[in-house]
Amino acid sequence: MTNTTKIVFIGAGSAAFGLSLFQDLFSTSELAGSTLTLVDTNPEALDRMAALAEVLNREGDARITIEKTTDRKAALVGAGFVLCAIAIDRNRLWKLDFEVPKKHGIRHTLGENGGPGGLFFTLRTLPLIVDIVRDVEAICPDALFINLSNPESRIVLGLSRCTSVRSIGLCHGIFLARWFVCQILGMAEKEVDVWGAGLNHFQWLTAIRERSSGRDLYPLLREREKTHDPAFTPLTRRLFHAFGLWVTCSDDHMGEYLPYGWEGGEHGFDFENDERGRVILKDLMDGVIDGSKAIPDDWTKPSWGERAVAVIAGILHNQKRFIESGIVVNRGVVPGLPDELAVEVPLIADAAGVHPVSLGRLPDPIVKLLSVQAGVQQLAVEAALRGSKELALQALLIDPVITSSTAAVAILDELWEANKPYIRPCL
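The structure assignment produced for this chain is given below.
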């Protein structure tokens, strides 16, 4: 393999996404000779991740050149692929996204991709990502932009509205759904293939098959689910009973889109445990970097998550690589949903680009359920692109999670003020 490229990773200070990417990059020789340029506005986090990248690069003999910079525009020169994993004041604002609606009587979960939290994640995040992609458009217009930031569906939809840069989103949600299914089946994840189509965090598994034989595992799932612990992912199973297909990716993520989503667990993100985990992870990283701690075995193996490296290798080497799941603009891939909507489906990556795989029409009741969320996402993106408080209120009032117009106005006023520094027109 002689083809090489330059990969720019914006938001490289993110320990979780960064480590997952490093696992995939440095456990293969497919990108040998290529350059990885790490970009972050936090110099301390950037230095840590760059040092870790050097260690794992040597350990895996991946032969990738590592660069780092806080200058985004300088980094983009000559890029073939741009990865983005950013969040603005992540935990503080995300807590508000969950707590403010709850204070006003809205029962919901997580507050990240759906409901009022999903709206405000979009309002503050999309303008920044549009700025980044416009730099890509000006400096490396042929690069593929790979988004890893939430809310994925809305980001990809928004980018399609205001830039010509090729972009996709990647998420590990389908693998999380496979994990849940395998707990009921009593099978190892490596033994099971799943195919899904729909929206990000709201995909429906059209097929669950045994990898070795191709055997349809849905009959076994239906049989074993009857006697499985009823406390295990109850909301997903209620929808499974009602609609006939398993929905991704978990009660809390999928529940963000539904007025009864809180029935799967009325809680926000576990910020305290997340903060503890980050401290532990950073301490481990520092030990690996200075040699005082051994490299964990799983850090030198491919990750369980996003398939960014598989996409890059498939395109770079024209491998026609199958990617289990990615977020793209619909254009008929999921019949019955709007063409301009961002949907999540399987992909094929080769030298000609990224090609969505249509799994055909989903059952009509599922299309109707997804269509409710489609309108919410379209209007939320329009509000973000125009920086419009009026459109934001409308987006809340058509969201099924909102059950009170009085609460909608109160939530809007309070969260708009908290996010005001980041909301601005993009069109």
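Interim note for the steering committee: The two ends are 42 Å apart (CA to CA). The domain at 91-111+169-268+318-426 is CATH 3.90.110.10 (L-2-Hydroxyisocaproate Dehydrogenase; Chain A, domain 2).
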